[in-house]
Amino acid sequence: MLAFVGLAALTAAAQTQDPAYDPLEKAYAALRSRDYDSAVAHFQQAVLLAPDRPSIRKDLAYVLLKVGEREAARDQFAEAMRLAPDDVHVALEYAFLCHETGKTAEAHRVFNQIRRSGEAEHRATAERAFENIDRPLREGIERWKRALDLRPGDFSAHHELARLAEQREDYALAEAHYLEAWKLRPQLRSLLVSLGRVRQALGDAEGATAALLAASRSPDTRTAEEARALLPQRYPYVYEFQNAIRLDPANIELRREYAYLLLAMGRGAEAEHEFASILETSPHDLLSAAQLGFLRLARDDWAGAEPLLNRVLEGSDETLKERVRRALEPLMRLRQRSEAAAPAPEVKVLAERSYKAGYLRDALKYFTAAHEQDPLDFSVILRLGWTYNLLRQDDQAIRWFELARKSPDPQIATEAARAYRNLRPDFQRVRTTVWVFPVYSTRWRDLFSYGQVKTEVRLSRFPLRPYLSLRFIGDTRQTTGEASPQYLSESSLIAAFGLSGGPWKGFVLWAEAGSAVNYLGARRNVPRAAPDYRGGISFAKGFGRLLGSEAAGWFFEANTDAVFVSRFDNDTLLYWQNRFGWTSPVVGALGGLQLQLYWNGNLIADVRRQYWANVAETGPGVRIRWKWMPRSVAFSVNAVRGRYLIQQGNPWGPQFYDLRAGFWYAGTR
Amino acid sequence: MPGHARLLIRQVAALLAPAAALASLHVTGTAAEPWRRILEAWNLNLRSHRAIVVAGPVQDGQAQQWLDQVGQGAVLILEGASPLAEALGFRPRADRVRVASLEDVHRPQLPIYWERPLELPLFEVPEEARIFAREKWTRAPLMAGFRRGSGAVLWLATGPGEQGYERFPYILQAMADLGVTPEFQSRRLWAFLDTSYRRRADPDYLARRWRSAGIAALHVAAWHFFEPDPDNDRYLQDLIRSCHRRGIQVYAWLELPHVSESFWERHPEWREKTALLQDAHLDWRKLMNLLNRDCFRAVAAGVRALIERFDWDGINLAELYFESLEGHGNPSRLTPMNDDVRREFRTRHGFDPVELFDPASPRHLARDAAALRAFLDFRAELTHRLQTEWLEQAEAIRREKPDLDIVLTHVDDRFDTRMRDAVGADAASLLPLLERIPFTFLVEDPATVWHLGPERYQEIARRYQALTPRSEKLAIDLNIVERYQDVYPTKQQTGVELFMLVGTAARAFPRVALYKESSILPPDLPWLSSATAMVRSVERAGSRMAVDSPYGVGLRWSTPARVSGRLWPAWDGEVLWLPPGKYEVESAAEGPPVRLLDFNGELRSARVTPGGLEFSYESSARAFAVLDRRPSSVEIDGEAATVRVIEDGDRFTLVLPRGQHWVGVRVE
């Protein structure tokens, strides 16, 4: 009785511990009554409840074999093999089923592995099975090789040879013959999928990608989708397109997409060249003809564009014809210098609304659609420029501004040209920036001048930019810097070589090495020439209606710098300068005057804890500019009340008032 | 259902007149022909079936009246975006998705591609809907549905395509999941079986499944059993026994001139040669030179022994011609070029046919068209000689086993007329043999036309019917395999395409064979019997139905029945089996004392008799009658007969002679 109770308790415990107990019980009961369908269902349920138990997978596989589901059985053995890699019996079952279900290469691989490493009994089984697979493959390969000797260039022989070699895991041979077969029938791009697959097996990722990318741009959906399944999920790189085109130069879809990619990257000239070369080999490719026509239109090449667009209009693609017709209407209007505005399509209205409401992503989508509808609507092109600019994708923005400069509408052209000029230096190889900031301080009763001329070189693949810099620091009284001569009053020219990186999300990293020369000659405590090493990180960001905005509104600006200067006793200084205020509208009656009224909040600190470098100050300020002035020119007046945060060694008292009037100019070429 | 949908439905229902008289299929706002074709594949378009309404994107008021019929059993099919679809919760969003490939729950691992990819809106589907198909990469729903009351709603993101099968292979299976199942079935299919694919499966289980899929006969790859082997032979004997228990006939399928692996190994001297003079091992076939008399005698003796060793119902001489489909364009696959053939040709035409394939020869086929023509005609003549010789061999065996049926599987050369030159096949010269040797001429659909639509079978049938008055002996063989052509939506025929192919073939030919049973995908197998059911007309009047079918048909029927006024014995509890012709069916109060559960043969008549039943039939091979009671006596054609009875639990299978017979059975 006790034993029975104990057994019952053990059974109950087993039931509670084993989540698959119930379905397994039912599965085995169904198996005993040869109700295989129920057994399969219960085993599948058990697998869900105990997915890591290889024994359930094996039992399920055996029942699947009973009902003739060999592929499903093979997959269960594969899973059992993964869970129990030392179970050679399972591996053998898996390999046998691979062979039966057409996965010959996999069967070949597994049998080959077992015949070399398993126990004697398993080795013998694997050896026999391996030989049963390998021998016909070997013989087949030899037979087709002979056939090729007798009849070189036989597609069927190359294809058979490749197929057998792949099954025999001789991927190099397979690769060679898939390639040969494809060369004989280049329209059969499904062979490129096979080529890509064996190249992957060979570890030739680049070669595989070239073949698969070419196949994935096949007009045959099956080939394209099969290739896509083997390709990396990311979008291909430019060099991968180039490799694929080298392999399959007749692949128009591939080349067209490459051209579109170039276009999207702003490499318009290369894109045009690519479209033109597509048309050389496939003059009936109307899509390329249309695109090339539009590109030529965009750069005012009317003569080059018209025959291409006419070719499309005479073609059979009605959708494309309609698009070209829509695009040509404004062209004709432009050519007739008609002032009539094109009717605003709905998508453009949506785009404007999104833009004004600040939904820039939506605006971009709608403006892009509007541009596709009417590629010659320059107001849309300009808006695309501003939208990209606001999205901080200036590499795209400049491309659109450049196009919009060609607008026949002078207002659009002027605005676009100004924006283009502003952005262009960022994308030039060599650019020179000049800034000066003379400022008069009532506290010091002195005029200080700061300035820098910097020429930097933009290297295409190198994230840092080398530059040469000449700084000027001076004051009219030449007496202010008693306690620490380098502070404020220096009367120095500093020539340096530097590297800068960024801007990245508002941050700029920089470092330079140079020599500071006192243009007044040697002074007390200050040598005439001294090495100058400096570097730091700066952050500048503005929010809201900044100076130069079209409309009035609130704004906030933050400038933060961390600067190491060797000549300040190797000190590192931190500056936080913030302004919060209101920007007025542009007052036309006052010659385009615009004001900014704001409140300053500045904090300066250093690592070496020197009194002059630890200051907090706050107070009102005003900035003024006229619209006719260059964008980076402004006058400013600030009245601040400050406090030294460290008093030790401070000869000036803890607090101060200062009224500063300055003029900021910056320009880039 | 959301409140606004209910409101819309009520408004629509109130505005419109009461539903028109139910037609079984009503299509509005979209192309009707694809839907007619789809539903016809399962006879769902017949008037007896419940109403099916297809409402496309362009809807009119007429379509919407069906909404309130759904709860009463109608089936509503919606295409794409429409107010009706929105009202039921299938709402398009602003995002769009490019659809080139999809995944269907009925066969998730099966690649399904659209030849012409489409940009479609991304749809929201109602929570109650089951999603049947999704876009492969984005998982966007493309086909979904739900049941409502006794009706159902099926939604597709876009139309099914012009032919009806281009986009959603498993529309019909999705409808079945929603409770829309076919009413008719047939059990007349033949299927080829290569046992190497089924060796570890339970033969009893498979036999049960084959029979419920409508398979009447299996043509078993006999070359695996050419040489006696105890284990191998036992397996085949078990398989044949299992099939017979389930009433399935078993034919020895021969692939001469491939004999067997072992024969190829043992007789290298008789191996066939290609035009490159290599041994003709082409794909899986290892071809022998049957024109060599020694080889012929050895193979003929082996075939006779093979037929005697097993309880076969027939012999199928399949693909008895030369290689390959590429013809003289590919010498590495071209046969025959053995010494016997070369010698005979040289004697007759004065040159060695190998010269045709020697680029250096003046007789190279590119230079000497007449020489090539002479060889191709000679080859067709050899084929005819081989086929005649082997049909005579089979007829000789039949003289000793009179119930044996004979089949010749022959690639079509009437529809694809290139086949005569490609493989030497010439049906026109062969079909007159039917007058001398009764055999079934099974036309093999050549691989070169596998990509063409189902309508080709009507044309193939028409061309062969013109060649022989014995059109009842014509049959068609469909290859259900991965096609080498660029075909869509699936590489291998499945779902709607398969059902249309099989259905069209069954309308055009008295017999349809499928190559091969193992390649029929699991989602298709349960419905094959319905796809091959031929019904000319159905009329329903109250509880009575009138069914007219050309070959006999199974009608889903759950109660005992009277057929044309008489208690009907051919009923298995779920399906009522009717002979060819028009019959009225109505429910009966009591069941027959003995039931004919299944019959493999053409049932001509049946009736209940005191203490038993009687029926008449016709069959080209042995017929199998499955009863639910043990027979105590059997009469055939009015005479007491000793009939073999295979017992299997409460099923008793009678093995009956081939030909036309009347059978009377008394039960214990």
* Main sheet overview of chain A: 12 strands, antiparallel, barrel
The largest pleated sheet of chain B is described as: 8 strands, mixed
Fraction of residues of chain B in helices?
25-40%
What is the average of the pLDDT values of chain B? 92
* Strand residue percentage of chain A: 15-25%
- Name the largest protein-protein interface in this structure: A-B, 26 and 32 residues
User: CA-to-CA gap between the ends of chain A?
Assistant: 101 Å
Number of strands of chain B: 35
Low-confidence stretches of chain B: 1-22
Q: Whole-Å distance between the termini of chain B?
A: 58 Å
In total, the number of strands of chain A is: 12
Mean pLDDT of chain A: 85
Can you walk through the features of this model?
- The complex is a heterodimer of chains A (669) and B (668).
- By secondary structure, chain A is α+β, with helices and mostly antiparallel strands.
- Chain A has 24 helices and twelve strands.
- Chain A has a twelve-stranded antiparallel barrel.
- In chain A, a hairpin with an 8-residue loop joins strand 6 and strand 7.
- Chain B is globular, with a radius of gyration of 28 Å.
- The N terminus of chain B is likely disordered.
- Chain B is built from 17 helices and 35 strands.
- In chain B, helix 7 packs parallel to helix 8.
- Classes of the chains: A alpha+beta (669), B alpha/beta (668).
- The interface between A and B is medium-sized, with 26 and 32 residues.
Provide a short characterization of the protein structure.
Chain A is an alpha+beta fold.
